């Protein structure tokens, strides 16, 4: 049935506003394997924090290898779907993908004339990466005209050439120049995407009609799992704009989220061609991080540790699965520290595999995450220095007193260096950084343990910071020239740090040997707890949203750069 029903309900504009969850409509074709089109759009809108809705233009029989067949319902049915949504729901943003034919473009245009959403993101889908046409050749000029109505268009390099009537750009500069000319002429912003160019860095650049540019670079992921990346980027962008983000924040969020989704796409094992991206990776990672499951289960460490063997096989962490014990970069000096290393194997492996360490090493760690990490590191070092000083105060052996006091001084010196160098260029006009919940929990645990527990327990608590940091440092590969974090990575390679770790290990080995079985058990728990704090400390920077802040729906006047958009 394609006849229109009378409107029976008030549109939701007359209902209370939907606060911070933007209502986003995707108008696109389908992909039954879920990688592109409507499926990708809905997953992306959800991932970006919106409520997704879907109007279908064409049913596409496709998979990760390409398109097999198309079924296009009558244009009246497209119009009926559009009206069914807009008669009932207020839209904060609309994203269009595959429109297919001139007739369908005209149908959407007629509907937009009525509805006029504040944000219209047009992904001018023409040809899939598989080479299959998703827009009839005779509809290209209608699509070019349609793009003039957008808030922002997100063409790939080939689509940009059609849009601007130019030859296919072969460099980023050429693409930017084509887009700048078109944007100035039409008054519509363009996101220039270099995914289809042969570049090491993939950059998304928001080009405004006044010539201003916001470039968001990311490292190129070596993968074939890029099916539907264009659909996903434009839907996430529409959602973040619909939520009230500035173009800079919206593009940074969408690019950063998509990079994570592409990185983990291959692990989904969906299809044997160009596979989809993992739209849900970020949500699952954050969900796991929010788990309130205890870090160390009661049976992880026996109440009495008579011998190192009582600590048993690796069992720390959430799952207690069989774990291969990684070779320690700084060797344990005796059986107690060897047993502790084995017990913490799952956490050590998780740090090495963590998204944070991977992104720091391959250079894809977003700048805002790196800045956050440095600021938290400085705060942590201050707390850590106090815990080390407490151990110096509680030591009676002169060598131990010297060692812990020097370690405390070393941590304070590092903190001062961070402020002078890495953090020195930061904006000092705002409030000083405050400790995150993760940093506060870790430093509070260290101080409480160093001050309030037996000394051996305190020594066990401060050891992972030395040992696991040295472990990460030893595993670092050489990085290419121009790597954004090469200077920081060099700080991990400091040989003085390995010496300090060896000394801390020697302290713990002798403390464990001299301690009672009950104190040893408490020390083992403190060691494993601190290992877990280390993992959280690394991971926390990737839990922060670029731009952060509250999710507020902004009005057009809050964002003059979008004023007059979505005509
Ligand atoms: N190999 C890759 N590595 C990192 N990011 C990528 C990669 N391929 C695509 N992207 C991201 O996906 C976005 C859209 O991809 P692109 O291939 O340019 O568009 P389309 O899918 O429309 O052809 C890019 O702008 C970029 O953010
Ligand atoms: C129904 C449908 N719409 C769009 C595409 C193309 O997706 P895109 O995100 O441009 O990326 P590729 O799949 O071409 O890499 C599609 N395949 N199907």
UniProtKB/TrEMBL annotation:
Record key words, sorted: Kinase, Thiamine biosynthesis, Transferase
Catalysed conversion reaction: 4-amino-5-hydroxymethyl-2-methylpyrimidine + ATP = 4-amino-2-methyl-5-(phosphooxymethyl)pyrimidine + ADP + H(+); 4-amino-2-methyl-5-(phosphooxymethyl)pyrimidine + ATP = 4-amino-2-methyl-5-(diphosphooxymethyl)pyrimidine + ADP
UniProt xrefs under SUPFAM superfamilies: Heme oxygenase-like, Ribokinase-like
Annotated pathway: Cofactor biosynthesis; thiamine diphosphate biosynthesis; 4-amino-2-methyl-5-diphosphomethylpyrimidine from 5-amino-1-(5-phospho-D-ribosyl)imidazole: step 3/3
InterPro entries in alphabetical order: Haem_Oase-like_multi-hlx, HMP/HMP-P_kinase_dom, PM/HMP-P_kinase-1, Ribokinase-like, Thiaminase-2/PQQC
Boundaries of every Thiaminase-2/PQQC domain copy: 355-543
Domain Pyridoxamine kinase/Phosphomethylpyrimidine kinase residues, every copy: 31-278
The enzyme's E.C. designation: 2.7.1.49, 2.7.4.7
CDD domains in UniProt: HMPP_kinase, TenA_C-like
Molecular function as annotated in GO: hydroxymethylpyrimidine kinase activity; phosphomethylpyrimidine kinase activity
Name assigned to this protein: Bifunctional hydroxymethylpyrimidine kinase/phosphomethylpyrimidine kinase
Natural source organism: Citricoccus nitrophenolicus
């Amino acid at each position: 049935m394609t006849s229109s029903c009378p409107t029976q309900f008030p549109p939701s504009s007359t209902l209370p506003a939907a606060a911070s969850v933007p209502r986003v409509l995707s108008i696109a074709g389908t992909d039954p394997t879920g990688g592109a089109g409507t499926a990708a759009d809905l997953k992306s809108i959800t991932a970006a924090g919106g409520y997704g809705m879907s109007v279908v233009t064409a049913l596409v029989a496709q998979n990760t290898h390409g398109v097999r067949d198309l079924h296009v319902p009558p244009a009246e049915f497209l119009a009926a779907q559009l009206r069914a949504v807009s008669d009932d729901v207020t839209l904060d943003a609309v994203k269009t993908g595959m429109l297919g034919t001139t007739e369908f473009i005209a149908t959407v245009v007629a509907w937009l004339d009525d509805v006029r959403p504040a944000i219209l993101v047009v992904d001018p889908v023409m040809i899939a990466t598989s080479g299959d046409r998703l827009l009839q050749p005779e509809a290209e000029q209608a699509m070019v005209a349609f793009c003039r109505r957008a808030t922002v268009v997100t063409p790939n390099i080939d689509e940009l050439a059609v849009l601007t009537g130019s030859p296919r750009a072969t460099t980023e500069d050429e693409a930017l120049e084509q887009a700048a000319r078109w944007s100035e002429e039409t008054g519509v912003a363009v996101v220039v995407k270099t995914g289809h160019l042969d570049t090491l860095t993939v950059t998304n650049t928001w080009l405004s009609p006044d010539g201003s540019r916001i470039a968001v670079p990311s490292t190129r992921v070596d993968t074939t799992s890029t099916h539907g990346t264009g659909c996903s980027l434009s839907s996430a962008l529409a959602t973040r704009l619909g939520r009230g983000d500035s173009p800079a924040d919206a593009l940074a969020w969408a690019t950063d989220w998509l990079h994570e989704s592409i990185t983990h796409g291959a692990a989904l094992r969906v299809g044997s061609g160009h596979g989809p991206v993992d739209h849900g990776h970020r949500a699952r990672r954050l969900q796991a991080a929010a788990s309130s499951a205890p870090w160390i289960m009661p049976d992880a460490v026996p109440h009495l540790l008579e011998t190192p063997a009582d600590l048993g096989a690796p069992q720390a962490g959430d799952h207690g699965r069989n774990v291969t014990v990684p070779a320690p970069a700084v060797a344990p000096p005796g059986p107690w520290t060897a047993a502790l290393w084995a017990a913490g194997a799952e956490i050590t492996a998780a740090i090495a595999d963590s998204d944070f360490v991977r992104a720091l090493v391959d250079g894809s760690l977003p700048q805002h995450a790196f800045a956050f990490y440095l600021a938290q590191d400085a705060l942590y070092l201050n707390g850590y220095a106090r815990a080390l000083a407490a151990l110096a105060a509680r030591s009676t052996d002169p060598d131990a007193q010297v060692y812990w006091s020097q370690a405390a001084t070393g941590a304070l010196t590092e903190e001062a260096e961070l402020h002078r160098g890495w953090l020195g260029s930061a904006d000092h006009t705002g409030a000083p950084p405050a400790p995150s919940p993760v940093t506060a929990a870790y430093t509070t645990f260290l101080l409480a343990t160093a001050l309030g527990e037996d000394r051996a327990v305190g020594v066990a608590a401060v050891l992972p910071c030395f040992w696991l940091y040295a472990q990460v440092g030893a595993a670092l590969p050489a990085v290419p020239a121009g790597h954004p974090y090469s200077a920081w990575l060099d700080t991990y390679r400091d040989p003085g740090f390995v010496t300090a770790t060896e000394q801390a290990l020697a302290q713990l080995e002798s403390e464990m040997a001299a301690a009672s079985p009950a104190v040893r058990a408490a020390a083992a728990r403190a060691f494993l707890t601190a290992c877990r704090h280390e993992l959280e400390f690394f991971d926390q920077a990737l839990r922060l949203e670029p731009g952060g802040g509250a999710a507020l729906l902004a009005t057009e006047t809050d964002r003059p750069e979008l004023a007059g958009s979505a005509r």
